[in-house]
Fold TF-B3 domain-containing protein.
Amino acid sequence: MVKRSYEEFRKQRLEENKKRMEDLNLTKLAHSLKPASASPKPSPMKPPRTPRRNTELLPLRRSTRIVNNPAPVYKEVAVEFLDRHRRVYYKRRDLSNRVYASDEARANAIDRAEELQSGLEEGFPSFVKPMLQSHTTGGFWLGLPVPFCRKNLPKRDETVCLVDEDGEEYNTVYLARKNGLSGGWMGFALAHKLVDGDALVFQLVKRTQFKVVV
């Protein structure tokens, strides 16, 4: 037996493998799977940058209606209130001098007011209202007894006149939904120097008029 060299044996194996691949059509299949080009695609070239043009600063477009008007000046200016003669100003009270009534003084004022109420003419509904800080130095809001309001006062907001012992009249705003006096009550309270602990007798002498005794 003639021994073949390694090189002859290798060539024979290559030929056999090549023939076997041709029989199976593997050569054409391998070529079809290869990319069309092994080299990477070149990146697209960016277009050259054009230098900016020297632009001039142009004035903003303005409406033809205001183009000839002077530019506005934004600064704080004093506001002049109109119709000052129609408004009534009261000097702010010094709340550091508030009067705080003791329980004894408050009860004494209520007793005297109820005694006065009992001597009023019959046929005119009345009630006693003790004063608190909110009535005389705070928000100047006077809430009235709800049952009295529902029975005797208008069902909508109206002007209610308060007449003191000297016959002076003070118009106030009665708020029906809140059952109390708002605008105008402050003027009455300051004019009569009401303080915490005072007691007032309200007697309804007309539909929207009270006679008030301090």
About this structure: The first strand starts at residue 126 and ends at 130. Residues 74-90 have pLDDT under 50 and may be disordered. The two ends are 151 Å apart (CA to CA). The beta strands are 126-130, 142-143, 158-163, 169-175, 180-181, 199-206, 209-213.
